[in-house]
Amino acid sequence: MSLLSDLVPLGTSGYSGASGYSGPSGTSGYSGEDGAAGDAGAEGTSGYSGSSGTSGYSGPSGTSGYSAYSGSSGTSGYSGSAGSTPTTIDITVTAGEALSARDCVYIAPVTGGGLTAGRAYKVDADAIRSSTQGFWCGFATAAINAAATGTVRVAGVLTGFTLTAGAPQYISATAGAITETAPTNSRIVGIALDTTNLLINTRGANTSVVGAGSKGYTVKASAASEGKKITFATDTSSALTTVVPPQFRCCSVSEGVSKGFWLGGDVPNAEAYKLLFSSETYAAATTANLSAARVDSGGLSCDSTKGYVLGGVNGATRHVTTDKVTYSTDTTAAVGGANLSQGRGGLICVNNFGVKGYAAGGNSGAVVATADKVTYSSDSTAAATTANLSSVRSYGGAVSETTTKGYFAGGDTTGGGAIVGTADKVTFSTDTTAAVTTANLAVVRAYFNTNGDGASKGYFCGGYTNAWPTTAQTDKLTYSTDTTAAATTANVESNAWTSGMSDVAA
Question: Fewest CB atoms within 10 A around its CB: which of 112, 186, 219, 354?
Answer without folding.
Answer: 186
